[in-house]
Amino acid sequence: MTLRLTVSPADDLLDVPRRIEVTGAAPGALVTVRATTDRSGTAWSARATYRADRSGTVLLDRDPPMSGDYGRVDGMALLTSQRPDPTPGRPAATDVSRPLRTRLEAWDESDATQRATADLVQRWTGPGVRRREVREDGLVGTLFVPQGDGPHPTIIVLNGSGGGINEQRGALYASRGVQALALGYFGVPGLPDHITRTPLEYFETALRHVHRELAPRAGVVVVSGQSRGGELALLLGATYPGLVGAVVAYVPGAHVHGSQGAADPAQGWDSPTWTLDGEPLPHLWQDNPGVTWQPWTGGPPPDRYRDVYVDGLRDRRFAAASRIPVERIAGPVACVSGMADGLWPSSMYARQVVETLRAAGHAHETLLLDYPDAGHSIALPHLPVAQGPTRHPVSGIELSAGGTPAGNAFADADSFAQVCAFVERATRVP
Questions:
Q1: 258, exposed or middle or buried, with CB in 10 Å at 0-12, 13-18, 19+?
Q2: Phi, psi of 25 (to 5 degrees)
Q3: In what order do the strands lie in the sheet with 154-158?
Q4: How confident is the prediction along the chain (430 residues), in pLDDT tens digits per residue?
Q5: At CA 393, angle to CA 397 and CA 210, rounded to 5?
Q6: Domain map of the chain by residue range?
Q7: Rounded CA gap, 194 and 188, in Å?
Q8: d(C-alpha 413, C-alpha 407), whole Å
Q9: Is 220 in contact with 331 (CB distance < 8 Å)?
Q10: Is the Cβ–Cβ distance between 64 and 74 less than 8 Å?
Q11: With respect to CATH, is domain 130-426 assigned 3.40.50.720?
Q12: How far apart are alpha carbons 366 and 353 in whole angstroms?
């Protein structure tokens, strides 16, 4: 028999799971499957060895690997377990106009002549999605518009302390029918290099621009952010309840924090992050005697960073002064968090947000997606998950986001699908 490797579907959007199957092996043969992807000029790869069944077949979503880069039954683990050679970490930012192309190879360990290949394509944008750079009203961002006539569900996408513009998430949202403005607020040409003293009025301008120019469905603008962007999304919802129709907060903070790893070095890690009417907002680190040590000065990294946040909350005065008044948010709220978050206590923060809303009699949907084995880096489906320490893109300090490979991969895929459904509900025309 001839070894054959098939992928179904072979070419589709990033969030679509694939069925990878090897046929034609000898019954009981050890078959190795390897996936190699060019990610921004660097080859990322993973492999696993399986035992073929009595019909000579291996199904990656059915069979446990005998050995390799992962040990679980997971049809997409060949992609989520990939690592670059030689440096571990997350892939660099990707040009969303170029799909990810993966070469799959399979071979019989006992017969080198039995080899097969197949190609797998993951696309960021579906048919008809339009991309346009936004440089109006002082804003810096990229707009992704879905195929077809509007009005569309509409979302503003905010990055966290890494800065930049999250075009990847914006493109995939648009491919699922959600108009997305991926908005930069620092770390982008034309904007500051650091997060320190970012004025909330910039985001008010963005919200008014979206309402005026983009015709959001049902008049609802959803604001979504990751990490510090999650903190920001909650803060914007509480500050501008007439402009923010719903909030999606990924691994968020429930309090305002100092600038931390994205700080302007001249002003320090505990400098204010946000300002309103020219005045800095009180933050958790400000004159807080409970914070006796902090992990942003470049010293040896600890195993976990979250403890410094818990320490800072022990004094109720400082906790109360920095708390985001989420009960002022006038629309649905979704929080996505990881119980194994190694950077800050996003699970505790997310639960605090949801409990505060429910205690206040919040009249809108509250959704909590709190994943037991996920860390801080809950991203998009079927991409390499965070494994081991990485360096912060602004400070360069070594960080460990936490979570298990399986837990992070599940959270990536499940949260994206659930958030898309949440946005659909939040923007539904009455």
A1: buried
A2: -80, 160
A3: 130-134, 140-145, 179-184, 154-158, 221-226, 246-250, 333-338, 366-371
A4: 799 999 999 999 999 999 999 999 999 999 999 999 998 888 999 999 999 999 999 999 999 999 999 999 999 999 999 998 766 555 666 789 999 999 999 999 998 889 999 999 999 999 999 999 999 999 999 999 999 999 999 999 999 888 899 999 999 999 999 999 999 999 999 999 899 999 999 999 999 999 999 999 999 999 999 999 999 999 999 999 999 999 999 999 999 998 787 777 888 778 889 999 999 999 887 877 777 655 555 555 554 466 777 777 877 887 888 999 999 999 999 999 999 998 889 999 999 999 999 999 999 999 999 999 999 999 999 999 976 667 666 666 767 788 999 999 999 999 999 999 999 999 998 8
A5: 140
A6: 4-123, 130-426
A7: 10
A8: 10
A9: yes
A10: no
A11: no
A12: 9
Segments of 88-197 assigned E as strands: 100-108, 111-123, 130-134, 140-145, 154-158, 179-184
* DSSP state, residue 374: B
How far is the CA of 383 from the CAs of 34, 168, 289, 370, in angstroms?
15, 11, 41, 20
Classified as helix, coil or strand, 228 is helix
What pLDDT is recorded for position 304?
A: 45
Q: What is the pLDDT of residue 394?
A: 63
- DSSP letter string over 169-191? HHHHHHHTT-EEEEEE-SSSTTS
The fold of the 4-123 domain, in CATH, is: Immunoglobulin-like (2.60.40)
Q: Are 238 and 324 in contact (CB under 8 A)?
A: yes
pTM for the full predicted model: 0.94
Amino acid (1-letter code) at residue 336: V
Cα separation, 148 vs 150, in Å, equals 7
Yes or no: say if 228 and 273 are a contact pair by the CB < 8 Å rule: yes
State how far the Cα of 321 lies from the Cα of 255, in Å rounded to an integer.
9
From the number of C-beta atoms within 10 Å of its C-beta (0-12, 13-18, 19+), residue 211 rates as: middle
Using an 8 Å Cβ cutoff, are 283 and 257 in contact? yes
Query: Please, which residues bridge with residue 221 across strands?
Result: 154
167-175 and 405-426 helices, crossing angle to 10° = 60
Residue carrying structure tokens 């990878």: 20
What is the C-alpha R_g of the chain?
23
- CA 163 to CA 183: how far, in whole Å? 10
Question: Cα separation of 188 and 193, whole Å?
Answer: 7
